[in-house]
């Protein structure tokens, strides 16, 4: 029997992209800098480190608050709610972001359910 593949909203992709971009920028800054710290601290790469990581941190806080659209019914799904873990099947007990780990089993959720159409989708 063929199992139907779940549609994705690429919720985790946002954070993975942000992390990879931050690491790549940091490596670029380190590897492109000169041998002397005085010369490196005067470079444009060094001056961009602070603003870039401030932007990355703000983006992380903003991205997790945006509601996502259900890929099945296209209704908005809240990213902060009292969700049930798909691994241990326990409720969180309070409103938590979907990107957070379960308070009971410490697993990051790979799927979520739409409260409108009751369909499961990949995060």
Question: What do you see in this structure?
Answer:
This protein is an alpha+beta fold. 38% of the residues lie in helices and 11% in strands. It has helices at residues 11-32, 37-41, 44-63; strands at 68-69, 76-77, 80-81, 96-97, 111-113, 120-122. The protein has a two-stranded antiparallel ribbon with strand order 1-2. Strands 3-4 form a two-stranded antiparallel ribbon. Strands 5-6 form a two-stranded antiparallel sheet. β5 (111-113) and β6 form a beta hairpin. The protein is elongated.
* Residue share in helix: 25-40%
Count of runs of 4 or more consecutive helical residues: 3
Helix vs. strand class: alpha+beta
Count the beta strands.
Answer: 6
* Low-confidence residue ranges: none
Query: Beta-sheet strand percentage?
Result: 5-15%
| Largest sheet, spatial ordering of strands | 1-2
Task: Please give the radius of gyration in angstroms.
Answer: 19 Å
Mean model confidence by pLDDT: 82
Largest sheet: 2 strands, antiparallel
Q: What form results from the Cα inertia axes?
A: elongated
Please report the distance between the alpha carbons of the first and last residues. 25 Å
Please provide the ordered H/E string of secondary-structure elements: HHHEEEEEE
What descriptors fit this protein?
123 residues; alpha+beta; two-stranded antiparallel ribbon
Explain the layout of strands and helices.
Elements: H1 11-32, H2 37-41, H3 44-63, E1 68-69, E2 76-77, E3 80-81, E4 96-97, E5 111-113, E6 120-122
Antiparallel strand pairs: 1-2, 3-4, 5-6
Helix pairs in contact: 1-3
């Amino acid at each position: 029997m063929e199992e139907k593949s779940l549609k994705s909203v690429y919720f985790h992709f946002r954070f993975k992209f942000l992390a990879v971009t931050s690491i790549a920028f940091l490596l670029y800054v380190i590897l492109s800098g000169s041998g002397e710290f005085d010369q490196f601290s005067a470079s444009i790469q060094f001056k961009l480190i602070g603003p870039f990581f401030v932007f990355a941190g703000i983006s992380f806080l903003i991205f997790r608050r945006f509601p996502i659209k259900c890929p099945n019914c296209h209704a908005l799904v809240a990213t902060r709610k009292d969700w049930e873990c798909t691994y241990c099947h326990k409720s969180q007990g309070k409103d938590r972001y979907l990107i957070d780990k379960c308070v009971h089993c410490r697993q990051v959720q790979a799927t979520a359910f739409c409260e409108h159409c009751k369909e499961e989708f990949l995060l």
